[in-house]
Amino acid sequence: MAAAASSAPPLLAFLQLLLLLAAFSPATATASRSSNPKAPFPAVTPLHLQALRQQRARAGSSAAKHVAADGASASDGTAAKPFTAHYFPQELDHFTFTPNASMLFHQRYLVNDTFWRRPTGGKGAAGPLFVYTGNEGDIEWFATNTGFMFDIAPKFGALLVFIEHRFYGESKPFGNDSYNSAKTLGYLTSTQALADFAILIRSLKHNLSAEDAPVVVFGGSYGGMLASWFRLKYPHVAIGALASSAPILQFDYITPWSSFYDAVSQDYKSESLNCFSVIKATWDVLDERGANDKGLLELSKLFKACKTVKYSYSIRNWLWTAFTYTAMVDYPTPANFLENLPAYPVKEMCKIIDGYPANTDILEKAFAAASLYYNYTGNLTCNPIEDEDDPHGLGGWQWQACTEMIMPMTISNESMFPPSNFSYDDRSDECLQSWGVRPRPHWITTEYGGYKIDKVLKRFGSNIIFSNGMRDPWSRGGVLKNISSSIIALVTEKGAHHLDLRSATKGDPDWVIEQRRQEVEIIQGWIDQYHQDMAEI
């Protein structure tokens, strides 16, 4: 996404897409068709989605690498997916009775019943439903990479369900016209999404004859926000929520506006002051050299662009993305969710920068460091710096970030990024120009709360785990302290963006293993208490 020159952070709108990053390793469960041929999962793919899939197959979608899962290969030689896809007829508008409200669209959800303990007619309780509340992207991307849920399903005898968020992936109410205007996008809200989840879950439980089975919702980032809000809004549907890296306090004036970029900067400064200083000095040099066509040509060669860049801001955004994303996914083990990266990639980036002689061109150092993010495997021969690509179908987030998901961000003088301010009025004008609507910047805290959250949730909330890693810049907008005996904050000093929801690996440090153990123990307690309460009834 090309960014226009302004005083705002060049990636502000795009960085809020970071909320989607459920950065987990591929699940190890193998695909399983239901052992019961009469299982009530509708298996027929709507015709318009069949056509879409065929179109994607012909085009060789660049997102394919994010869909492959570990496990046995399918008959066509591709990796088998650890879930089956199904479609639910969902109403367009849950909150009005206008003529369009009852219009139906097909909402995709994915199921893995490999380890599910089915209801046995009074001879044993059904296993729980573990439901992932889908983020702002294709649900297969998240499900394939949500290893933790697959890892713990055998212990709980759980049915795994991943529900796609409306207006993303294949769940677009108006098909290819879904993003045309505010007239269609007006149905894309978090409240509508939560209602979708509730209705689908209740229908699924009814069709499975498992209405007494407990439900626990899971989510990371924006999905984690939705999971926590779902538990608060629909406590009769879900008995608990694991909300990983969920910045539910990144609104209004609750969290300092500079906290995100301060945290990114601190990640690099903690590895090397020289590394931090080089990145901080990069932006002015880049602007100066890219001030004319000759400079842009030289920069295009230095950064190995696939074609000559038209704006220095394009390279600026390319670097900005690499440094910010790498801070978010600063995992202690190798990962390939966004790009192939080594363990502790921030440390490795700084090693690259620090390895150059002091008099080396500063942009050469920055390029080499960013290449670790974009081309760690060395497979790229050039960098598509100005080529727009949306492999995960994130386009709807630009609408959400211009309506209700207004998360103010500024950049302080102490940051390694150029200083900038935020103005609600300026954002409102930008959104009006882009979409023809003005945002409701304080709606989220009105609808879900946020101010004095410890006092509020202590009085009525329960059964929520808020997990955060302090290497993750989004952690500053999360819940970092226990609110009550059942609203728990699990915080790791060296954790990154919802590291706990990644699949377990042999290289996991002890503190990650312990965090996941605590989560399993807490969830087990919720389920045990639920069954005890049901027995008393």
Automatic annotation (TrEMBL):
SUPFAM superfamilies: alpha/beta-Hydrolases. Keywords: Glycoprotein, Hydrolase, Protease, Signal. Residues 1-29 form the signal peptide. InterPro entries: AB_hydrolase_fold, Peptidase_S28, Ser_carbopepase_S28_SKS. One of its GO terms (biological process) is proteolysis. GO terms for molecular function: dipeptidyl-peptidase activity; serine-type exopeptidase activity. Belongs to the peptidase S28 family. This is Lysosomal Pro-X carboxypeptidase.
